[in-house]
Amino acid sequence: MTDAEARAWLSLLRAHLGLPGLRALIGTYGTAEAALGTGRRGWKALGLSGSEQQALDSIDAARIDADMAWLTGGPQRHLLPITDARYPQRLREIGSAPPLLFCIGDVGLLEAPQLAIVGARSATAQGIENARAFAEALSHRGLVITSGLALGIDGAAHRGALAAGGGTIALCGTGLDRVYPSQHRDLAHAIGGHGLLVSEFLPGTPPKADHFPRRNRLISGLALGVLVVEAARESGSLITARLAGEQGREVFAIPGSIHNPLARGCHQLIRQGAKLVETVDDIFEELAPAIASLLARPAPTAPAPVQDSLPGFGADAGLTVVSDLESPPIQGLNPDDIESAHDLRMLLQTLDDAPTAVDHLIERLGWSAERIGAALLQGELSGCLVTDAVGRVMRVTSATAP
User: pLDDT at position 339, please?
Assistant: First the structure.
């Protein structure tokens, strides 16, 4: 994206247009720069109100300069408009998708298979441990953990993913030049360095009460499913779960003691149809078809604007695949990805029929936790590997490495 186009997107956002007006502008003119340059005659023709036209005509250039200074002021800072190929497809599909995302970190995580883990800020010690342990175990199996950077369950989930060397995404209710809550300053910096921080809010935006329920639709919208660890009957976590259901995502809940008020929200979700979760297998079994479909989807090419068929904004970018035509396929595995097929073969050769801890596999192969997690995910989806109740891995007897 050029500086001129970035400035144009920031100007549109600073004008605080409604989503219909913004869709009309980008759908008609293709780019933010062209939409901004059309002037009052073009804006009026699209039905923008007088106040909206005035807002577009009186953008404070100094504020845009400050936004651009933030964007260029540190490594791995990104501006992702909804027309960008890197904008996550799952988020595009929700009705209230934000037109622009501010990001710090690895934007490639946005298209990875994600599970959202949410829960009470004033969580119990057991709830904190459950969130951390589930995040760590699911990270080892290749899922990115998404949450909201809040105290309690959210923070524990992020820390569990980081401890596993996996990916984690934090959706923030402020501009990314601020950290809220302040107790999570170090955690936010760790996520920015090893995961991804995301916000729909402009730099300088302070925490406001209505920002956090609004942010929750993005947590559920990015993920394949939402796991609620602890929640009272009236809580933001239940809002996230409700939004997940409306968006067609899976909803999971961990049960607790009938004497624990923070278990009541989870019990309510289970009564309403959420899947009761005791182990990571309960989640993985439910999500396996969606994960397999997502992994089979070709990766987007280098970032480029897309402007054809997405209603009001443009279509998906071109896609590319690589194939491994010479290597024999592992049974049940789509051989389109040469690197993942090679890694799975190596992993199978390393394993025997005895259960093996993931940490031992990392030591034996000298791989990163992320690489191990991807290979384990492929192995489980193809039926080559199974994991026992404590997360140890073993080869299925009938599976052999080619």
Answer: 52
